[in-house]
């Protein structure tokens, strides 16, 4: 019955949410999601609505009003916290490059298959576990434990370097 209700109400919900979204400051998909959640809560507590299309229209309008109220109270930051400081200045760029070099050097010093595994994990291609396992010739199930072991080794290698770089006294 729930599947029938959902498939029956879906086109109406899409239309109603699309109509209410511009004035509410919300995306139509956000309104749809909120109304589906309300419907599930309603089904759990009271069963199916007596007039599903009418209930849906009221729920969409209620969610749109809630979104308008929330949007009207939200205020932007004067300055974005992340915008404090320029991360494109020469000093920041040089420090970031030095950190990347130190990480790559430590990765090369890892034992066994670890250098290839960590390089695959750091790859800008964002490889999946399946792709990494295939590239290394190991089972996908052993990749997690191997990754943990390799990252533990990497942590131990980097710990003295991090401690030496942090200022003392």
Describe this structure in words.
The structure is a single chain. The protein is mainly α. The protein is 75% helix and 0% strand. It is elongated and about 70 Å long.
The helix/strand order is HHHHHHH
Show unreliable segments: none
Treating each run of at least 4 consecutive H or I residues as one helix, how many helices? 7
Question: Taking all residues together, what is the mean pLDDT?
Answer: 84
Please provide the count of β strands. Answer: 0
For the largest beta-sheet, the strand count, sense and barrel status come to: none
Distance between the termini: 70 Å
The class by helix and strand makeup works out as mainly alpha
Q: In percent terms, what proportion of residues is strand?
A: under 5%
Query: What is the radius of gyration computed over CA atoms, rounded to a whole number of angstroms?
Result: 27 Å
Anisotropy-based shape: elongated
In helices, the fraction of residues equals: over 70%
Question: How would the blueprint of this fold be written?
Answer:
Blueprint (H helix, E strand, L loop, with lengths): L1 H23 L3 H19 L5 H22 L16 H19 L5 H9 L6 H8 L3 H26 L4
Helix pairs in contact: 1-2, 1-3, 2-3, 5-7
């Amino acid at each position: 019955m729930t599947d029938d209700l959902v498939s029956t109400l879906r086109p109406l919900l899409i239309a109603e949410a699309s109509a209410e979204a511009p004035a509410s400051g919300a995306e139509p998909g956000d309104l749809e999601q909120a109304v589906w959640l309300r419907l599930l809560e309603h089904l759990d507590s009271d069963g199916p609505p007596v007039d599903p299309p009418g209930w849906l229209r009221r729920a969409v309008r209620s969610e749109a009003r809630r979104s308008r109220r929330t949007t009207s109270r939200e205020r932007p930051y004067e300055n974005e916290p992340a915008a404090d400081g320029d991360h494109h200045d020469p000093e920041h760029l040089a420090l970031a490059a030095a950190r990347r070099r130190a990480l790559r050097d430590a990765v090369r010093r890892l034992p066994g298959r670890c250098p290839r595994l960590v390089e695959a994990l750091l790859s800008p291609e964002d490889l999946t576990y399946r792709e990494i396992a295939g590239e290394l010739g190991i089972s996908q199930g052993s990749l997690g434990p191997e990754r943990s072991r390799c990252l533990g080794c990497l942590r131990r290698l980097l710990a003295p370097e991090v401690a030496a770089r942090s200022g003392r006294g």
